[in-house]
Specification:
InterPro entries: Homeodomain-like_sf (IPR009057), HTH_AraC (IPR018060), HTH_AraC-typ_CS (IPR018062), Tscrpt_reg_AraC-type_HTH (IPR020449). Residues 697-795 form the HTH araC/xylS-type domain. Keywords: DNA-binding, Membrane, Transcription, Transcription regulation, Transmembrane, Transmembrane helix. It comes from Paenibacillus profundus. By secondary structure, this protein is an alpha+beta fold. It has six domains: 96-231, Beta-Lactamase (2-Layer Sandwich); 237-312, PAS domain (Beta-Lactamase, 2-Layer Sandwich); 360-427, no CATH class; 434-576, Reverse transcriptase/Diguanylate cyclase domain (Alpha-Beta Plaits, 2-Layer Sandwich); 586-687; 707-795, Homeodomain-like (Arc Repressor Mutant, subunit A, Orthogonal Bundle). It has 27 helices and 17 strands. It is elongated.
Length: 798
């Protein structure tokens, strides 16, 4: 090879390797991100859940702080209303006093005896202000007499307003207008600056008019110092910069504490009067204020508490700062940890991908161009698992075949030495060493030579049921193997260790275990409607003697007699050589009955021939044994005659006379009984043939009349003729020599060919001949004729 070409190849390989390396790094980067994303997703979910819990916690704390403020505000409201109620009670007592009511009509207070009335009225006013510090003073203004009477003095209205009392914003006329010209039922005049005697301070005035609207007689006035209201309001923990205001329904200030810009406070009051919320936030003098307000149900006054949110929620904000700090630190740590874990977890997958990519099949390398590494590895391992599964399946099948072959050869005596048997068992993966062996044979039913499809199917189902139930028995170890189509063998093993002194006890124990296992097995099989005939060969100690145990069980099958106490029989060496006993087992009788009922003359003659050989040629029976045998055979014939409704050729009494007559040729009587069975068998056969002809005609007529119906099936035919579906299938194939479905398909396709020649469209033809879809019709037509319906039409030049 030229040097330049070699260099070109090397350069090309280097470029490919470089590109593969770049692609792998790109793929690994995506893989790292895919590992990182779940961590980040879980982190986001955790943060979201934490944020929700945090917000709920903060909201709870804020509500607790606000509820604490509301509680203090309610306490202040309750206390103020109690004190104001005391003032109202004092004023009410004064207004209802008889002296006060009597002096209201006096117009000349110092004329005559009226002077005494003045002094008596003043004396009637107890000085409640001495015992109630919430009340600075109170007095009564009489309009008719123009006097002001208090517990301390009596003066004219003008003199009293100038010397004792004066409102900063009102002159005497304004004061008179408010006190005497305006009707006050129980009114509080908002906070005003008042000079009382020598002291000037903020006061709240309570006024109750005397008389009634339109006829004013005066007023009772009570002065409430604002400092007393402040004492009560100071129970509310007002932070620096906060304020508390009490506003009546007219917007008058009843009480206040705290500082603040008046304009801002007025805005706050205006907003509070227009809002129904009990809590809200607002900006006041550039500060975030948390406002709580309540409205009294008794007075209608609004209590407003505005405090800096930073001070009120100081503990809440401290928790926020701590929480955000911890969350920030934790978030940074978790993100770094997620980066490290995603990088670490992607490393093994990266190495695995590199390994698989390096040693993959050539077909798998094409998949490496896909951007999803998981899909690539999934495909690679799926292919590997599929290959492994296929290999395991093949090995299992081969091992099962080997196992069946070993048992078949073993039970039939195909091994000459122990070494050959041991090698075959090891090759099949079996370990079958025991101190004793015994074979049980299960006869699943006798059908003579009738091995039709239905019979074979029935035997197959029975064998499967026996094998399934036998494998579930754990009393004693055993293997299950098919001997014939209607026979299953169970090979039992005695795995218990035994000594020389306990050999006989172990044999008894092994026998009991086998009987217990067979008892349970027969019980289970009976639930599945399987009643086998069970015989057990003798116990053997050598593996090469197992075929002899099977042979003994098979010999017992021909002479087994079922009784009420046991469903099986054991081989007995002492009884096996007995003579002078005729052979006519229940199985032979059952075969005779089935042969007659089935109209099978050939099977009937075969069974009778075998019975004659077994009893006349193979044995030397006594005359009595032969008579008993003939009586049993005749009894079977009598039972059959009643079953198939056929008269006996020889009556019972005549037969008994011949049987008991001396010198009678018993062999001829056997031939006579044989003629009885043949007569009944032929009669049944004729009836069956006649019935079958009618049934087949009805079946064919129904199929021809309904083959174009897509619902035509074995079930429909069986329902129409009142027989079973399985019988329809087997009977039709027996009579016609073709399956039901194939025959219906032939009818439909022949009709379809006729319609094609008539020029009908294929879609309409498919529907008319009974196909549910055009695809089904096309597949059937092409399968039958090797071409499609359209091609068939072209071939006919239609």
């Amino acid at each position: 090879m030229p040097k330049s070409s070699e260099q070109t190849i090397r350069a090309s390989g280097s470029i490919k390797e470089r590109l593969r390396s770049i692609w792998t790094k790109k793929l690994m980067g995506r893989l790292w991100i895919r590992f990182l994303l779940p961590y980040l997703l879980f982190l986001m979910l955790t943060l979201t859940a934490g944020w929700i819990a945090y917000r709920e916690t903060i909201d709870v704390l804020e509500r607790e702080v606000l509820e604490r403020n509301d509680k203090a505000l309610n306490q202040a409201q309750t206390l103020l209303e109690t004190r104001f109620a005391e003032v109202e009670s004092i004023v009410q007592q004064v207004a209802d006093h008889p002296k006060i009511k009597g002096f209201q009509v006096v117009s000349e207070p110092f004329a005559g005896t009226n002077t005494y009335k003045v002094m008596a009225t003043r004396s009637a006013l107890d000085d409640y202000s001495v015992s109630n510090r919430f009340l600075m003073d109170y007095f009564v203004i009489f309009q008719n007499s123009s006097l002001v009477i208090s517990p301390h003095r009596v003066e004219s209205i003008d003199a009293y307003y100038g010397d004792v009392l004066r409102y900063k914003d009102w002159d005497v006329e304004q004061w008179k207008q408010e006190m005497l010209k305006t009707f006050h039922l129980k009114d509080f005049i908002g906070m005003r600056t008042v000079r009382y005697r020598q002291t000037e301070e903020q006061m709240v005035t309570y006024v109750r008019s005397l008389g009634y609207p339109g006829y004013y007689q005066g007023a009772v006035v009570a002065l409430i110092p604002h400092k007393e209201i402040e004492k009560i309001l100071h129970s509310i923990d007002v932070k620096q910069g906060g304020t508390v205001r009490i506003i009546d329904q007219q917007g008058e200030m009843i009480g206040s504490i705290g500082n603040g810009n008046e304009d801002s406070i007025n805005k706050l009051i205006s907003r509070s009067m227009s809002m129904s919320n009990s809590h809200y936030r607002t900006d006041m003098d550039g500060q975030d204020m948390l406002v709580s307000q309540i409205t009294s149900e008794k007075t209608g006054w609004t209590y407003i508490a505005a405090q800096p949110a930073a001070d009120v929620l100081k503990s809440v904000y401290a928790i926020k700062r701590t929480t955000f700090t911890l969350v920030g630190i934790s978030l940074a740590v978790i993100v770094l940890l997620a980066l490290w874990l995603s990088h670490r977890n992607s490393r093994p997958l990266e190495r695995l991908y590199s390994y698989v990519h390096t040693f993959a099949k050539p077909g798998m390398l094409l998949r490496g161009k896909r951007s999803d590494i998981f899909a690539y590895l999934r495909d690679a391992f799926a292919e590997m698992l599929e290959t492994t599964k296929t290999l395991d399946q093949k090995l299992t099948e081969r091992q099962e075949y080997a196992r069946m072959a070993v048992f078949d050869k073993w039970l039939r005596g195909g091994y000459a030495t122990e070494q050959q048997l041991q090698s075959s068992l090891e090759h099949a993966g079996l370990e079958r060493n025991a101190s004793r062996y015994a074979v049980a044979l299960l006869q699943l039913g006798w059908h003579g030579d009738d091995w039709s499809t239905s019979v074979l199917h029935e035997m197959e189902l029975k064998r499967l049921v026996v094998m399934d139930e036998a494998f579930g028995m754990a009393c004693v170890p055993c293997d299950v193997h098919d001997i014939e189509q209607d026979q299953v063998a169970l090979l039992f093993y005695n795995t218990h260790a035994e000594g020389q002194t306990a050999r006989e006890d172990e044999a008894v124990r092994f026998k009991q275990e086998i009987e217990h296992t067979l008892h349970e097995l027969c019980k289970r099989l009976k639930q599945s409607h399987v009643t086998p005939i069970c015989t057990i060969g003798g116990m053997v100690s050598r593996r090469l003697d197992v075929p002899r145990s099977l042979e003994q069980a098979q010999q017992l099958q021909s002479v087994f007699e079922r009784d009420a106490e046991s469903a099986w029989t054991w081989w007995d060496e002492q009884e096996s050589g007995r003579e002078d006993l005729y052979v006519y087992s229940p199985d032979v009788e059952l075969r005779l009955i089935h042969a007659v009922r089935g109209g099978n003359e050939e099977e009937l003659l075969q069974v009778l021939h075998t019975t004659r050989i077994e009893n006349w040629e193979k044995q030397h029976l006594s005359c009595m044994m032969k008579q008993w045998l003939l009586m049993d055979l005749y009894s079977t014939a009598m039972k059959l005659s009643q079953t198939v409704d056929a008269a006996m050729l020889v009556e019972n009494t005549v037969f008994q006379q011949k049987l008991m007559k001396k010198g009678t040729d018993l062999h001829k009587l056997f031939h006579s009984i044989e003629q009885e069975f043949v007569h009944m068998c032929r009669l049944v056969h004729e009836r069956k043939r006649s019935r079958n002809e009618t049934l087949f005609e009805d079946m064919t007529a129904y199929i021809h009349a309904n083959y174009a119906d897509s619902s035509l099936s074995l079930t429909a035919v069986a329902d129409e003729l009142h027989v079973s579906e399985a019988y329809v299938s087997a009977f039709f194939k027996e009579q016609r020599g073709i399956n039901f479905s194939d025959y219906v398909e032939e009818l439909r396709l022949e009709a379809a060919k006729t319609m094609i020649k008539q020029g009908l469209p294929v879609t309409a033809i498919a529907e008319r001949v009974g196909y549910n879809s055009l695809n089904s019709f096309s597949r059937a037509f092409k399968r039958k004729h090797g071409m499609s319906a359209s091609e068939y039409r072209k071939m006919l030049n239609i």
